[in-house]
Task: structure prediction
Amino acid sequence: MFTLVQISDCHLAADQQASYRGENADRNLKRLLPGIAALAPDGLVMSGDLSEDASPESYARLAEIVKPMAPKRAWLPGNHDDRAVAAEVLAEPDFLAGPVLDWGGWQLVLLDSAEADRPAGVVSDARLAPLEQLDGERPALVFIHHQPLPVNAPWIDKYPLTQAERFWAKIDSQTVRAVAFGHVHQAFKGEKNGVVCLSCPSTVANSQAETERFTPDPTGPKARWYRLHEDGRWQTGLISAGMN
Result:
């Protein structure tokens, strides 16, 4: 069994005292450390919007905070990230950027949906190519920043993965067990074409689910865990601040 943790939408800034939606990004991320440590995860995936201002300082500080979380660490960009700056700071071998990782007998696909100066997501044939190269005999878990289906929250559904039909045309439900995303700052579980779709809430500030406008969730920052079995079985759940 391979235990995986996903964190998303950390929104760290160069100024570690900066406020994001009234919350401190560094402090709230660190509040999740005990709950993550209790799971003793084998791997960590950071699914975009790691920084609020795309500063080298924010990525460097993020790297230090998450290093104790898991021995294997990977990331993909979100619309707030600068891909080049992040790649320079989050360099291999400490931080991997995919596009396909072989972890615990599973294929973990890290897809890039970020476009500079655009809050919505964008895909292309080149970005989706890893989906066509998967081994159909082994289970896969696909990570992408933007939601590829509505989460019933108009304030964030206006910034989805555009042309999502191109994405879904490449998803084989016999191989892909789930699609995991960030961006929406709330917990969500749905289904599309026989594939489970899961959001990872933000590590800094979340909204209550399915609201017209961002409505602060008083339960605080969260992360998501997965237990991946080589035979294709899997489980998932949320990590909240204060869990241990």
